[in-house]
Amino acid sequence: MSDSVPFWKRKALAEMSPAEWESLCDGCGRCCLNKLEDEDTGEIYHTDVACRLLDGTSCRCRDYPNRRAQVQNCDQLTPDNVPLLKWLPKTCGYRLVAEGRDLYWWHPLVSGDPETVHAAGVSVRGRVGLFEDAMGGEDLEDRIVSWPTRIPPRAKFPPRPKLPADTTVSPGAKIPAAGGIAPGGKRLTSR
């Protein structure tokens, strides 16, 4: 395959350089949420409690190089274990590539903008209820949430382009986005 094809479409996880590997992380922070596993069924439950090293704004680790020394249960993703980690979000770049799927439109490698993961509602920004070090006597079972297992509707498809406010459209023209203009060029206003 040609080098014009993005690396994640032409390389297996094990073939990636360290820089390519690290760039697959979309910065959502979902993997940094505490999870519980049912010992009988193996089912994974996500919580809104984040690792104490997670930066709630950037959704990145505050001490990434030393994270495993500071957080004993921090899982290091590898090409070998990614296919086995069923708790990885459905939107995770590592999981998608391991499954032979493409990255979503909001992934920074696709969009060119690290903020699109937040704009698409995929990241944990603004959704972390607590950080581990603030748990006190609370039980993790009381913090179980379902949103980390879902893909937000606005993350599934890229936003449609908006037409400039002064745009008129000829009758019968296909409009890529409503943009406040009805077929026939009539301007729509809300009441």
TrEMBL record:
Pfam families named among the record's database cross-references: CxxCxxCC
Region annotated Disordered, chain positions: 151-191
Signal peptide as annotated in the record: none
Low complexity biased stretches: 171-191
UniProt cross-references to NCBIfam families, sorted A to Z: PRK05170.1-5, PRK05170.2-5
Family indicated by similarity: Belongs to the UPF0260 family.
Protein name as annotated: UPF0260 protein CH341_29435
Organism of derivation: Rhodoplanes roseus
